[in-house]
């Protein structure tokens, strides 16, 4: 079982940047290399939207096409922390941002853009973009 805790959200002006953190832990002590970490966001009244995923062992991020250039993700293996870097924030980026963990399987790779592909969720952190 994986536990995830997001942090780093807040109020940001348009054009600003933010780095969100996700502390990841595997309750049974097993390695996290079996998992992929993903970031989603959910704006009020909208469905949860895929942002980026990366495999914990390789760290190469795969970003949603519409968000490339402003979003990227990474992980610190020593601190068991995942990060989401967001640049040039826009009003429409206002949402609750969630990190998730999924066993890295062929089924996951076929469905990673869907929230249903995530096995474990954090509680989310609010990001509000406003002037």
Question: What is the structural class?
Answer: mainly beta
Strand content: over 45%
State the shape. globular
Round the Cα radius of gyration to an integer and report it.
Answer: 14 Å
Number of helices: 1
> Helicity, in percent?
under 10%
- N-end to C-end Cα span: 40 Å
Order of helices and strands: EEEEEEEEEHEE
Largest beta sheet, briefly?
7 strands, mixed
Which consecutive residue ranges, at least 5 long each, have pLDDT under 50? Answer: none
Layout of SSEs?
Layout: E1 2-7, E2 10-12, E3 18-26, E4 35-42, E5 49-55, E6 62-63, E7 71-76, E8 81-86, E9 95-103, H1 106-111, E10 120-121, E11 125-129
Structure in words:
The protein is mainly β and 131 residues long. Helices cover 5% and strands 48% of the residues. The chain has one helix and eleven strands; from the N terminus they run βββββββββαββ. It has one helix at residues 106-111, and strands at 2-7, 10-12, 18-26, 35-42, 49-55, 62-63, 71-76, 81-86, 95-103, 120-121, 125-129. The strands form two sheets. Strands 2, 4, 5, 6, 9, 10 and 11 form a seven-stranded mixed β-sheet that branches. Strand 7 (71-76) and strand 8 (81-86) form a beta hairpin. The model has no long low-confidence stretch (mean pLDDT 93).
């Amino acid at each position: 079982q994986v536990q995830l805790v997001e942090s780093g959200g807040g109020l940001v002006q348009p054009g600003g940047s933010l780095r969100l953190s996700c502390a990841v832990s595997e309750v049974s002590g097993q390695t996290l290399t079996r998992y992929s970490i993903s970031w989603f966001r959910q704006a009020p009244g909208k469905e949860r939207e895929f942002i980026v995923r990366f495999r914990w062992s390789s760290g190469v991020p795969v970003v949603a096409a519409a968000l490339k250039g402003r979003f990227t993700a990474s992980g610190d293996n020593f601190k068991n922390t995942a990060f989401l870097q967001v640049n040039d924030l826009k009003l429409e980026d206002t949402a609750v941002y969630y990190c998730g963990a999924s066993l890295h399987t062929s089924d996951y790779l076929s469905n990673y853009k869907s929230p249903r592909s995530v096995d474990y969720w954090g509680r989310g952190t609010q990001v509000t973009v406003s002037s």
